[in-house]
């Protein structure tokens, strides 16, 4: 029904010295999917995002995106192919305006700065940040900065968007707005993988959940099944609770 | 791309801000064009030419150091190449300085790329160290080469006044307008760059490399391009300077002191801004010239002390540079 997967992570391992941050991770992401990636602190979620986005290469394994083997491709080339991401620790261009931050993202598709500026403004409207367009990014509050990261990533017209804990530290109201935003992104046809600590946030939202623990995939499936999986409960609550 | 019927407010604000910048620059350029009518003194004229020339030089430095964040403390090497190539081609082959400057600029660009190729893959401060080392090595090479006249240097032959050969014995005025033309050119280049894809990419690289890369920016190529543009205009200014002073030797065009004079105005005035380099030059260059004339020919050390104190004072009181003083009068919009 859905054809070949958009993303295929094929036995990916990443070592940092003796530490194995990702251990033989394999899964596929269908086009248009909304996938939740969860797991306790240090499970290797951000490392997996870095591998998919091209911050560094895997020690072993293969990553195929949209039919192209991207395992050794540098990050900018992956952005050009249609992979965008946010950072767990926000990385705004603080001395630039909010609009210019998003403009940088839009420029990868459009060398004409005026057209790209319109596109960037559309993304600010989409993420509800247009009121802050002329502020310096450094002046934003931290929930605003998280939305800026999303606007900037969306401006690159991605096929796949990687969201690394965009809901962290939000108030319940802000988190609800965030969830709404993710829904709209998905509705616009973009495939999303989101990392989130809080199960209550991700589980109702996603159609598939992948659980990492100590770098390994310990569960993968429909969210309601995953939350009942004894191994998942154990990794979240510690041994003895399963 | 379908553009909305009504242009969003932040975009109109941006467009009018760009126009305002251009209008201010035009007014400043006109005022500077008329300034010689009020200045007869040769000493003052000399300082004006140097100030405008170093404003232009620092504006060129700012393209790489301010926008792209690659701090060079060796720009004297591009300046010196521009000076030596222009003079040597004229003295030895009779090639007009206009073409000599372009040749010097081309060589400077090649050197900038050759230096950037190994360095721009490394973290920022390695580049800064490399620029100092390369400039010192170039200083030694030039001081010991034959075509440069070694430590003695090169002297332009006496020739009749002419715009073709850029020789003017009786008046400094043509050099004033030459320097002003170059300053206007580098300002406009900076202004144009600020709203190009490359300009935004360079500032993104300066701000956060990982974020820039995630948005499709090729960091290495950005640094190389900024470096090439910066070296080009620095070398042209070197050629102008050489014809202005009509005599060059290794220390006068290639020493570390020159690298400081090129980089400090932008740092002092406001790094990565349109008007920072000019503002910094207006403060630094006359001050340097005045201390030198009051303390005599050995004023070099005094100069450096004055610069050092100034830069420290500014970085403590106004970390964003002199340009930020404007915000005392013009409040930033929310
Ligand atoms: N660049 C790196 N160099 C060395 N070790 C790293 C690096 N990146 C991650 N690690 C290590 O890999 C392990 C997994 O880290 P990662 O950031 O991927 O976890 P995470 O699941 O995102 O955790 P969190 O929920 O706290 O964000 C950790 O032990 C971490 O210290
Ligand atoms: Mg993480």
Describe it for me?
- The complex is a heterodimer of chains A (about 240) and B (about 325).
- In chain A, about 45% of the residues are buried.
- Chain A is globular.
- Chain A has about 240 residues and is of the alpha/beta class.
- Chain A has a domain at about 5-80 and about 160-240: 3-Layer(aba) Sandwich (Rossmann fold), CATH 3.40.50.300.
- A 6-stranded mixed β-sheet of chain A has the order 6-7-8-3-9-10, with helices on both faces. Chain A has a 4-stranded antiparallel β-sheet with strand order 2-1-4-5, covered by helices on one side.
- In chain A, helix 3 (about 100-105) crosses helix 4, helix 3 packs parallel to helix 5 (about 140-155) and helix 4 (about 115-125) packs across helix 5 (about 140-155).
- Chain A has helices at about 45-55, 75-80, 100-105, 115-125, 140-155, 170-185, 200, 225-230, 230-235, and strands at about 5-15, 20-30, 35-40, 60-65, 70, 85, 160-165, 190-195, 210-215, 215-220.
- Chain B has about 325 residues and is an all-alpha fold.
- Chain B has a domain at about 40-255.
- A two-stranded antiparallel sheet of chain B has the order 1-2.
- The two termini of chain B are about 30 Å apart.
- The mean pLDDT of chain B is about 90.
- The interface of A and B includes residues 80, 117 and 125 of A.
- Bound molecules: adenosine-5'-triphosphate (ATP) and magnesium ion (MG).
- The site of magnesium ion has 4 residues of chain A, from helix 1.
């Amino acid at each position: 029904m859905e054809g070949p997967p958009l993303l295929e992570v094929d036995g990916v391992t990443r070592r940092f010295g003796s530490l194995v941050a990702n251990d033989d991770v394999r899964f596929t992401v269908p086009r248009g999917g909304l996938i939740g990636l969860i797991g306790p602190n240090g499970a290797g979620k951000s490392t997996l995002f870095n591998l998919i986005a091209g911050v560094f290469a895997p020690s072993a394994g293969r990553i195929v995106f949209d039919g192209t083997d991207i395992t050794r491709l540098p990050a900018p080339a992956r952005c050009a192919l249609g992979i965008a991401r946010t950072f767990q620790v926000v990385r705004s261009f603080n001395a630039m305006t909010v609009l210019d931050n998003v403009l940088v993202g839009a420029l990868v598709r459009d060398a004409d700065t005026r057209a790209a500026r319109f596109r960037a403004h559309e993304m600010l409207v989409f993420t509800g940040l247009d009121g802050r367009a002329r502020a310096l990014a450094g002046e934003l509050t931290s929930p605003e900065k998280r939305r800026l990261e999303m606007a900037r990533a969306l401006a690159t017209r991605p096929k796949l968007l990687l969201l690394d804990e965009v809901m962290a530290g939000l108030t319940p109201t802000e988190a609800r707005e965030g969830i709404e935003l993710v829904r709209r992104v998905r509705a616009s046809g973009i495939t999303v993988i989101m990392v989130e600590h809080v199960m209550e946030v991700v589980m109702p939202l996603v159609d598939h959940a992948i659980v990492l623990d100590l770098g390994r995939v310990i569960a993968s499936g429909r969210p309601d099944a995953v939350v009942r999986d004894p191994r998942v409960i154990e990794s979240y609550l510690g041994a003895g609770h399963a | 791309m379908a553009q909305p019927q009504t242009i969003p407010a932040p975009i109109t604000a941006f467009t009018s801000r760009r126009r305002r910048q251009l209008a201010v620059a035009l007014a400043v350029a006109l005022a500077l064009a008329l300034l010689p009518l009020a200045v007869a003194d040769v000493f003052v004229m000399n300082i004006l030419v140097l100030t405008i020339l170093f404003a232009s030089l620092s504006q060129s430095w700012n393209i790489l150091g301010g926008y792209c964040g690659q701090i060079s403390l060796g720009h004297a090497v591009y300046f010196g190449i521009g000076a030596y190539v222009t003079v040597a081609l004229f003295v030895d082959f009779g090639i007009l300085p206009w073409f000599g400057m372009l040749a010097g600029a081309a060589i400077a660009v090649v050197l900038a790329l050759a230096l950037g190729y190994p360095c721009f893959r490394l973290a920022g401060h390695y580049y800064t160290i490399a620029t100092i080392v390369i400039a010192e090595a170039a200083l030694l090479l030039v001081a010991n080469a034959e075509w440069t006249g070694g430590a003695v240097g090169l002297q332009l032959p006496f020739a009749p006044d002419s715009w073709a050969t850029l020789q003017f014995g009786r008046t400094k005025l043509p050099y004033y307008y030459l320097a002003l033309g170059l300053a206007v050119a580098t300002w406009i280049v900076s202004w144009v760059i600020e709203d190009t894809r490359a300009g935004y990419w360079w500032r993104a690289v300066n701000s956060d490399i990982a974020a820039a890369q995630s948005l499709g920016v090729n960091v290495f190529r950005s640094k190389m391009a900024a470096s090439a543009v910066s070296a080009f205009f620095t070398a042209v200014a070197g050629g102008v300077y050489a014809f202005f002073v009509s005599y060059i030797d290794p220390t006068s065009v290639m020493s570390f002191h020159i690298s400081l004079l090129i980089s400090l105005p932008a740092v002092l005035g406001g790094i990565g801004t349109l008007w920072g380099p000019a503002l910094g030059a207006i403060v630094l260059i006359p001050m340097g010239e005045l201390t030198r004339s009051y303390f005599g020919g050995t004023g070099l050390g005094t100069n450096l002390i004055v610069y050092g104190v100034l830069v420290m004072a500014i970085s403590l009181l106004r970390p964003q540079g002199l340009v930020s003083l404007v915000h005392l009068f013009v409040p930033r919009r929310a």
